[in-house]
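dumping this here so i dont lose it
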């Protein structure tokens, strides 16, 4: 097998995955000691030079709803925000302060909108704890649950009113950091990525945040597609659930950063990233018998796609995956509390749900190991979040001493560029 010519214009993520695969099969294992005896491969595996000053772009990715419909991710973020406040000594620290990019799909997209839309005094609209309370309250008042935790967002006029009341006239331009929220556009039959960067460059890509939330969480089995238009009324979207486009948007967020030199001028590869990817639990334990077979397959397919993204991203990070990338995902604990939630009253549903998320976060973390599938590690999901909070704070402090900017968020529209939706399609076809 010939070595891949690095002079080719190959997508960075694809190239790194291919390189690791090639090394595995040629030399008996990425972590094999024999690699140290192969000077050519040793040189190839040498980590790329980090960005100037060692600074890293911080990415938060939140999966679409599955077994827990956003509650696990919200609880994870509440714990992370608490750790950030404790470790930094700032009681008002927010998740948005410590991330440069957020990508969220489905219920994850709504979480991203709540935590990264600008509110009063330039602070986020919601704290992580408030966002968790918002989701838990809607489960607790949402009637009979479907599955274990129920359907959080029962689309319809009531949800539209809730989002419009929450976000008012805020649009993608009013988000604090770089925001990426997907949906699937039936009008073009392609994924569409709502993007702050696109909105700042072209009014035709600026949408109200209330519409963005409706689009990314539109369940086709409940309300069908949701039609909407951009703020300038020129762009029309016929949207369904973002989870159909990408249940796990981590790869899309990484691609956005690596191909966006205007906002992230010093980021050259995955070694220049810090990524937190939040899952929402597996769907195998908790799908009630009344859910149709097609519905089961859709959920299983969504979880499978999320796992594939996790595996690919983990391989792309290679040797720095344990320090630069963390995946928080629960595995099969919901069944224990199935009857408890089904029989609980509205008053008790919230406490039961939060107890479930506590149990999930107390589980041992599962990592995707190169060429060896998933492996359970000694640290718990809570341990991983606390450890990564420390890394985020180190990066925050590091930037105080660097001259060159790690991130230059767009504030105006100097020139048109390809939309994120087009970029996403290009990336998908190249992999």
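and the seq i came up w/
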């Amino acid at each position: 097998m010939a070595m891949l010519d690095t002079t080719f214009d190959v997508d960075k993520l694809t190239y790194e995955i291919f390189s690791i695969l090639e090394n595995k099969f040629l030399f008996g294992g990425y972590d094999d000691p024999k690699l140290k005896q192969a000077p050519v491969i040793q040189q190839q595996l040498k980590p790329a030079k980090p960005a100037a000053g060692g600074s890293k772009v911080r990415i938060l990715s939140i999966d679409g709803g599955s077994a827990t419909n956003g509650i696990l991710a919200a609880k994870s973020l509440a714990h992370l925000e608490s750790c950030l406040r404790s470790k930094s000594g700032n009681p008002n620290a927010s998740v948005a302060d410590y991330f440069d990019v957020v990508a969220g799909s489905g219920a994850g997209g709504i979480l991203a909108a709540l935590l990264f839309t600008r509110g009063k005094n330039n602070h986020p609209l919601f704290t992580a704890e408030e966002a968790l309370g918002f989701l838990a309250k809607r489960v607790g008042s949402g009637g009979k649950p479907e599955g274990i935790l129920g359907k959080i967002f029962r689309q319809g006029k009531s949800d539209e009113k809730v989002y419009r009341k929450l976000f008012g006239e805020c649009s993608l331009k009013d988000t604090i950091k770089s925001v990426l929220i997907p949906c699937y556009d039936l009008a073009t039959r392609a994924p569409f990525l709502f993007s702050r960067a696109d909105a700042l460059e072209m009014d035709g890509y600026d949408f109200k945040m209330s519409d963005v939330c409706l689009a990314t969480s539109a369940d086709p089995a409940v309300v069908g597609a949701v039609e909407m238009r951009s703020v300038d009324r020129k762009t029309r979207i016929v949207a369904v659930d973002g989870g159909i486009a990408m249940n796990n948007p981590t790869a899309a967020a990484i691609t956005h950063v690596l191909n966006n030199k205007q906002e992230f001028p010093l980021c050259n590869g995955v070694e220049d990233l810090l990524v937190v990817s939040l899952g929402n639990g597996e769907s195998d334990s908790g799908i009630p018998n009344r859910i149709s077979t097609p519905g089961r397959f859709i959920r299983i397919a969504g979880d499978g796609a999320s796992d594939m993204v996790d595996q690919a991203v983990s391989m792309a990070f290679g040797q720095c995956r344990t320090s630069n990338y963390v995946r928080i995902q629960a595995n099969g604990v919901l069944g224990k509390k199935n009857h408890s939630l089904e029989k609980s009253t509205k008053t008790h549903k919230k406490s039961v749900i939060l107890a479930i998320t506590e149990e999930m976060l107390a589980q041992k973390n599962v990592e995707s190991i190169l060429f060896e599938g998933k492996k359970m590690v000694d640290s718990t999901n809570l341990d991983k979040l606390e450890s990564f909070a420390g890394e985020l704070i180190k990066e925050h402090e590091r930037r105080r001493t660097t001259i060159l900017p790690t991130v230059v968020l767009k504030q105006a529209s100097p020139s048109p560029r390809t939309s994120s939706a087009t970029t996403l399609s290009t990336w998908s076809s190249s992999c």
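The radius of gyration is 21 Å.
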